């Protein structure tokens, strides 16, 4: 360490020369001792741009899962990533990329090394003619929505939120709803991976097509997704209608209903026979005009009633769970008994307020089993003495050819259940979720990769025809399993 800056600083202070010399001598001794301390391999060549932070604790959105990694990095360039991957390899550390932390389970967690791509979030190219966008892996979907709109483009289908990173959403099979619309990963045309051996691999239908089909739902264990190129469509508005029905009405003609509209889903309110059916269709009509009065009224209903008072009621119900059926009935009557219509830009219609912290579980099943699954779930809730929160959400996706997509080679119904954690208070959910999983498993179900489930690799192997091939690709790309954690070990090797 050079002491010249200290010497200069001391010269500016009104102190005696002998004192100044003593301080300088101390500093020199300290720096000599420092230089004798050998560097460890973990300290070598950590460029400033790696934005390394220590003692960082990361939590997921629901505050259910957390980790305290030894190293946390926010790289800015591919060269930074190269250094980080090399460090992990030489120290035998696991590495997980942490997207926006919205996965309800611990898929993104490790106590070794976490990499966040929040500084690698550039939209690199928008091709208006081909209707494509190329963006870095850390780009948030909401950034894409905003930028694409400026170029008169939009993403064809979205999930309930747009807070996820594009790479995180793709890696777990994130989906919206619409029987003619696939999971988000299916609209990816190209993807660039940084692998454990330090290689950059551009994958597409024509280049490394097997790796491409594996990485489109790669669970974060094939490498770091540096960038993706996505097929978009011309920007569109959606006309959405939300209407109440009975569950039996919906189940009776489910197949006709879900094909009657581009995007279709329903929410069932357990302990009642009531459902809300939501449909959305592309339209050229102008957005719904919203007066100040209706804005205030919507705020009152959606925020005050639908959020704050609901959270308070559910909190009270943690002391008296028998209130839950009453709460479900009450809120259906207050908020969902009326027909609602809305026309707006697509992302504003696809996205919802998902309220407060929650436990969730979601499985996909072959479309033809959806009615049976709902009947069994209703029977479970009616006969088990369970008190469960609303809603049960049912969505649909088209079959695809992504190896680990829960919709792989089959039209799918997705059933999601929820138990809120009002004011972060824990609620019993394990028995409900376990019983739900048994129903879904018995109907050829596949769990959502980002949501808690109890399956191990032996069970998953039976669910996914290309499971072994996926594992082989992983062995080829990452033989030391750097891109792993406890969850990945269980689902791929357990
Ligand atoms: C309120 C809420 C609503 C949701 N709605 C839906 C929905 O409608 N439909 C649905 O299907 N899911 C939904 N989800 C789940 C969510 O879409 C997924 O969990 C998604 O993976 C979260 O993205 P993320 O950026 O937060 O990634 P994270 O949760 O941080 O990470 C997810 C996985 O992606 C990996 N990953 C992230 N970035 C990269 C990268 N650059 N390279 C390689 N791997 C990477 C991580 O390592 C991890 O394995 C919802 C979740 C919440 C909390």
From TrEMBL:
<dbReference type="InterPro" id="IPR016166">
    <property type="entry name" value="FAD-bd_PCMH"/>
</dbReference>
<dbReference type="GO" id="GO:0003885">
    <property type="term" value="F:D-arabinono-1,4-lactone oxidase activity"/>
</dbReference>
<keyword id="KW-0285">Flavoprotein</keyword>
<dbReference type="InterPro" id="IPR016171">
    <property type="entry name" value="Vanillyl_alc_oxidase_C-sub2"/>
</dbReference>
<dbReference type="InterPro" id="IPR006094">
    <property type="entry name" value="Oxid_FAD_bind_N"/>
</dbReference>
<dbReference type="InterPro" id="IPR016167">
    <property type="entry name" value="FAD-bd_PCMH_sub1"/>
</dbReference>
<comment type="similarity">
    <text>Belongs to the oxygen-dependent FAD-linked oxidoreductase family.</text>
</comment>
<feature type="domain" description="FAD-binding PCMH-type">
    <location>
        <begin position="65"/>
        <end position="235"/>
    </location>
</feature>
<dbReference type="GO" id="GO:0071949">
    <property type="term" value="F:FAD binding"/>
</dbReference>
<dbReference type="Pfam" id="PF01565">
    <property type="entry name" value="FAD_binding_4"/>
</dbReference>
<keyword id="KW-0274">FAD</keyword>
<protein>
    <recommendedName>
        <fullName>FAD-binding PCMH-type domain-containing protein</fullName>
    </recommendedName>
</protein>
<dbReference type="InterPro" id="IPR030654">
    <property type="entry name" value="Sugar_lactone_oxidase"/>
</dbReference>
<dbReference type="Pfam" id="PF04030">
    <property type="entry name" value="ALO"/>
</dbReference>
<keyword id="KW-0560">Oxidoreductase</keyword>
<dbReference type="InterPro" id="IPR007173">
    <property type="entry name" value="ALO_C"/>
</dbReference>
<dbReference type="GO" id="GO:0016020">
    <property type="term" value="C:membrane"/>
</dbReference>
<keyword id="KW-0472">Membrane</keyword>
<dbReference type="InterPro" id="IPR036318">
    <property type="entry name" value="FAD-bd_PCMH-like_sf"/>
</dbReference>
<dbReference type="InterPro" id="IPR016169">
    <property type="entry name" value="FAD-bd_PCMH_sub2"/>
</dbReference>
<dbReference type="InterPro" id="IPR010031">
    <property type="entry name" value="FAD_lactone_oxidase-like"/>
</dbReference>
């Amino acid at each position: 360490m050079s002491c010249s800056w200290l010497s200069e600083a001391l010269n500016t202070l009104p102190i005696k020369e002998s004192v100044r010399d003593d301080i300088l001598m101390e500093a020199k001794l300290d720096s000599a001792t420092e230089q004798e301390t050998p560097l460890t391999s973990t300290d070598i060549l950590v460029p400033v741009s790696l934005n390394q932070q220590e003692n960082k604790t990361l939590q997921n959105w629901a505050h259910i899962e957390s980790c305290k990694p030894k190293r946390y990095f926010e790289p800015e360039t591919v060269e930074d990533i190269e250094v980080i991957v090399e460090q992990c390899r030489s120290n035998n550390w696991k590495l997980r990329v942490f997207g926006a932390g919205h996965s309800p389970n611990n898929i993104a967690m490790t106590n070794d090394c976490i990499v966040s791509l929040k500084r690698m979030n550039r939209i690199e190219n928008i091709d208006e003619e081909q209707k494509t966008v190329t963006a870095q892996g850390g780009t948030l979907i909401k950034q894409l929505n905003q930028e694409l709109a400026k170029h008169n483009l939009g993403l064809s289908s979205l999930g309930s939120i747009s807070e996820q990173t594009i790479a995180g959403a793709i890696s777990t099979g994130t989906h919206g709803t619409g029987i003619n619309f696939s999971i988000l990963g299916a609209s990816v045309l190209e993807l660039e991976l940084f692998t454990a051996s330090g290689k950059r691999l551009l994958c597409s239908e024509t280049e490394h097509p097997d790796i491409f089909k594996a990485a489109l739902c790669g669970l974060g264990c094939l490498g770091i997704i540096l960038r993706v190129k996505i097929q978009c469509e011309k920007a569109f508005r959606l006309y959405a209608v939300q209407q109440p029905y009975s569950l039996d009405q919906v189940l009776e003609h489910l197949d006709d209903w879900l094909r009657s509209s581009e995007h279709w889903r329903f929410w069932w309110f357990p302990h009642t026979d009531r459902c809300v059916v939501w449909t959305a269709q592309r339209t050229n009509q102008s957005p719904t005009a919203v007066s100040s009065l209706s804005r205030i009224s919507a705020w009152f209903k959606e925020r005050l009633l639908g959020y704050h008072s609901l959270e308070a009621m559910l909190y009270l119900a943690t002391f008296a769970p028998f209130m839950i059926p009453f709460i479900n009935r009450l809120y259906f009557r207050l908020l969902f008994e009326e027909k609602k219509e809305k026309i707006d830009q697509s992302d504003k219609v696809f996205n919802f307020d998902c309220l407060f912290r929650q436990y969730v579980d979601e499985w996909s099943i072959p479309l033809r089993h959806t009615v049976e699954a709902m009947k069994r779930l209703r029977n479970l809730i009616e006969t088990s003495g369970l008190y469960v929160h609303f809603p049960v959400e049912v969505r649909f996706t088209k079959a695809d050819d992504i190896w680990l997509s829960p919709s792989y080679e089959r039209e799918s119904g997705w059933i999601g259940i929820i138990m809120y954690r009002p004011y972060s208070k824990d609620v019993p959910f394990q028995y409900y979720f376990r019983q739900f999983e048994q129903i879904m498993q018995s109907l050829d179900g596949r769990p959502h990769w980002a949501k808690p489930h109890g399956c191990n690799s032996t069970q998953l192997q039976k669910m996914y025809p290309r499971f072994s091939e996926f594992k082989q690709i992983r062995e080829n790309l990452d033989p030391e399993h750097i891109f792993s954690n406890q969850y990945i070990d269980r689902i791929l090797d357990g």
